[in-house]
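Batch manifest, entry 17 of 40.
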Amino acid sequence: MPNRNLYIMLTYKSLRQNANRNISVFLLIISIITCHTYVSAEIRENTAEEYRSLGYQQHKQGNLNSAIAYYSKALAFDEANEVILNDIGVLYEQIGLQEKAEKHYLQAININKNYLPAYTNLAYLYKRLGWEKKAFHYFKIRFEKGSPDDPWAKKVKDEIIAINPSYEKWFVHREAEKLNLELVRKKKEEFYKRVELSKEHYQKGEMYFKDGNFNKAISEYDRALGFTPRNPVILEAKEQASLELTKTNVVHFTNQAIKRLDSGDTRSAKSEIQKMLSTIPNEPVNNPKKF
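Output type: structure tokens
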């Protein structure tokens, strides 16, 4: 019986080792497949770009048959490439195959909703075909998706107004809104900058206050208030610092007056008392709480 138990244990151990080894092999295979897929995708994209570049060169040189051959090869390696589709659309339009050109422009847009050249080319295609409503639609989308520094913005704008002159008011209104938003943005930026500068001076003032340097604290609070004049926290901090400075001055001049009296110099003692009185404000000072 012991031999039988030992045999079972060894068999179980062997099966477990084989299972672990099989799992490791399986994971290795998965890793290799994943890596291969990634590398293959990268190679396909690079190959597609090479063929597209060759097609574009042939297109520029007027070798349209060679261009379409290279573009077709590029598309075979990367069929969801909006740039290749747009380039093929341009070529088809040039040789008079308008329907194919339209199809490729639309495919490029469907793949990448923000690929602007396809919108431009499609709009001009519709314009040349006399389909003003469709041309207007894509010119408008092209304009709205473009950035403020877009070199095509003015051309597209002119095309829209040429088709529908009433849209000139729309452009004026749009530009006014943009200007408004830009002003608001700049004001916000300036405001936040002033708040940050005010905060810096306020924090310096707080450090001086803790060190008992009330003159410097008040100076920093004043600088902070220069950026945010009605900030209640800083106003109260300055008032507290002013009160503490007054107390310090009163104690200082009082001690000086007592010293003068002790030495028999009553005139100087009176002078110190007058200095002390001059530091006390005429109006009552609130006793604010520190934040």
